[in-house]
Task: inverse folding
């Protein structure tokens, strides 16, 4: 096993976060994508497998186009991600770190089982993730991919993680803070991600945009900017995950880091740039006081990069990962994400139930409304977040008319 001599021992006790789900598994072997590993007494959730699949596919795409892959799994639990980056993405080196010293044996045993004697390909550390990443940055020991799988809304890892990733490298980050994305703790989201978030009908997409926005802010402090490669919401938690590419150069002036608004009166959403802050008003010109709910600043650009997702899908097909006996269907998920990447689609989604309620009718089928929107020249896609929602650049008022016409047509 490689030692990391330049890293000094922890000066103080690493900050270990509380596990909000209080789900500690007993010693046992698990299997994921055919790989067997011990979870011991570590924190492990089998429900996070899809998030791990997507991370591995993305890492493998990086390795294929760059030729090498060094990964830092900064909060690794039992080391399942490290294991999968090594075996499936064929990483050249993985540093598996978890602050909990009791996990060391389980992580090392899991990694040694698959490395067939080549223990120069991995190392295990038990330190605070911020300390590890800061020391890597100070040593200029940058990683191609850093995976930060933290609990809650701990954004304190963002700056050190951004600084320890290579330019054009990948950063995979997580939030499990559904209260903030739901707009129930605006001062908390402001502290964690710099975004004052209020309740919006598409709160789970707001959760992804809040997380990307937080990374935009931290990267910008360091003179960098980020490009989202994919964004994934999982209802098991909820969990928000985004894979970002770290780019040299500050955030552009006309960037997609803005405020978003939702009009309670007409149901339309809009994005406002910083120079429009004093002029925020819905295009329906309602005179209803406080009709506009405003949140931000958040990421308002595309949630995914279609070309990257297409490479991931290609690999998933080659590896036979398209669908499996556990009910996971990566093909459906990645294709949905590719559709959502259409640059003509705005942020947010409209729930079918909200459109139907505004039209005062029962909802038509989602297939019928999608066909009509496409026929009328609008960009439209389903959402990977909510199966009963659509993303479209058609305003809510027009969607309501289309719903009504579809119903009248079906009655005739
Ligand atoms: C969500 S779990 C990781 C799960 C793992 N990535 C997986 O996919 O199974 C978060 C882990 O972070 C560790 N942790 C908490 N605070 C930490 C810190 N400050 N530095 C490093 N690890 C930390 C916990 O011990 C826990 O194992």
Result:
């Amino acid at each position: 096993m490689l030692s990391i001599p330049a890293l000094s021992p922890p000066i103080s006790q690493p900050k270990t976060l509380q596990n909000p789900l209080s789900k500690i598994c007993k010693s046992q072997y698990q299997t994921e994508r055919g790989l067997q590993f011990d979870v011991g007494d570590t924190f492990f959730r089998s429900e996070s497998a899809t998030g791990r699949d997507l991370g591995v596919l993305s890492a493998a795409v990086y390795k294929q186009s760059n030729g090498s892959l060094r990964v830092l799994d900064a909060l690794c639990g039992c080391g399942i991600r490290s294991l999968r980056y090594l075996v499936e993405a064929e990483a050249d080196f993985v540093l598996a770190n978890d602050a909990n010293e009791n996990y060391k044996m389980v992580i090392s045993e899991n990694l040694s089982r698959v490395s067939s004697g080549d223990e120069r390909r991995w190392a295990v550390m038990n330190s605070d993730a911020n300390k590890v990443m800061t020391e890597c940055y100070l040593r200029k020991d940058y990683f191609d991919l850093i995976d930060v799988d933290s609990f809650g809304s701990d954004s304190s890892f963002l700056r050190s993680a951004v600084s320890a990733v290579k330019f054009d490298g990948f950063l995979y980050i997580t939030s499990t803070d559904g209260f903030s994305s739901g707009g129930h703790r605006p001062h908390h989201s402001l502290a964690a991600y710099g975004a004052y978030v209020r309740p919006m009908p598409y709160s789970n997409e707001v959760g992804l945009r809040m997380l990307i926005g937080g990374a935009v802010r931290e990267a910008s402090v360091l003179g960098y900017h980020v490009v989202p490669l994919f964004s994934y919401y999982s209802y098991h938690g909820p969990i928000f995950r985004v894979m970002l590419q770290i780019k040299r150069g500050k955030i552009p002036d006309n960037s997609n880091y803005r405020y978003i608004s939702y009009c309670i009166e007409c149901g339309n959403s809009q994005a406002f740039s910083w120079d429009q802050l004093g002029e925020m008003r819905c295009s329906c010109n309602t005179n209803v006081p406080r009709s506009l709910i405003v949140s931000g600043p958040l990421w308002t650009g595309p949630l995914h990069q279609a070309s990257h997702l297409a490479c991931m899908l290609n690999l998933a097909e080659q590896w036979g990962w398209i669908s499996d006996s556990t009910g996971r269907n990566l093909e459906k998920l990645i294709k949905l994400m590719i559709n959502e990447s259409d640059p003509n689609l705005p942020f947010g989604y409209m729930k079918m139930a909200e459109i139907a309620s505004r039209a005062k009718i029962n909802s038509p089928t989602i297939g019928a409304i999608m066909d009509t929107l496409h026929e009328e020249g609008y960009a439209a896609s389903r959402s990977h977040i909510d199966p009963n929602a659509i993303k479209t650049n058609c305003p809510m008022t027009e969607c309501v008319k289309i719903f009504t016409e579809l119903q009248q047509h079906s009655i005739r």
Summary: The domain at 349-412 is CATH 3.30.56.70 (Phenylalanyl-tRNA Synthetase; Chain B, domain 1).
